[in-house]
Request: fold
Amino acid sequence: MGQRNIECEKKAMNSLIKLPRLGFITLATAVGFAVVLAAAPAKATAVTLTLEDPALQIFQQTLNNPCIFDNNSCKQPAGFPSTLLPNGSPENADTNTAPLQVNDYTASQLTTVAGGNTFSVGIDVNVAAGATPPTDSLASFTMFDLTTSTLLASYSPATPTQLSFLQNGNGFSDDILKGFDLSGITATDVIEFTVSVVDATDGREQFFVISAGSVPVPEPTSLMILGTSLVGLGAVAWWRRRDGHEAV
Reply:
């Protein structure tokens, strides 16, 4: 009887010893999960893009601002392709499922050409002469992380927004989409863009990256007026010299 009591007491003691160990294992497991979760990158929240319509500043595509979607006339840096828009309305395109090519980019490609994590997209609108009314309108534009299946940025108005066309089809920004941000995105993540332009009346539009270092340019019409004025002043000076009336 005494021996049985001793055995029972030993089993009870062993059970008491195991409980703290089990508790320690459970605590260690919980801490491990917490560390993993803390190390995992936070899932990005989609940014709602804003459309500056018309653009308050003018940017030129050929000045180191590569196109994402274009009309096959953009100036592109080596290794940064653009996606040709369909000719006609609607102009719907996707860098991942384009009819002729797939031109997704890595996040590092975009940050390199943008000069940082944030950038804007200029839109050069191409409206038919005499179109009444000119109706080229932006229905949507998105930036999507294919690697993590995450929508990063979106412009999706309830109704398509009619685009301004002050620099109609000349390689300058008529409108600007603002708010693109790749902060916290892994450099190797594959980034996809989509666009939809409805009621297009002429050739393809251009959608080009406005990098952090891009400098606004004077409005092309202002440049033309300045050039005309300079030509006029030169002609007056020439006539004055020819007729001997140049002031001494």
About this structure: Helices lie at 2-39, 107-114, 220-242. The first strand starts at residue 47 and ends at 48. The longest helix spans residues 2-39.
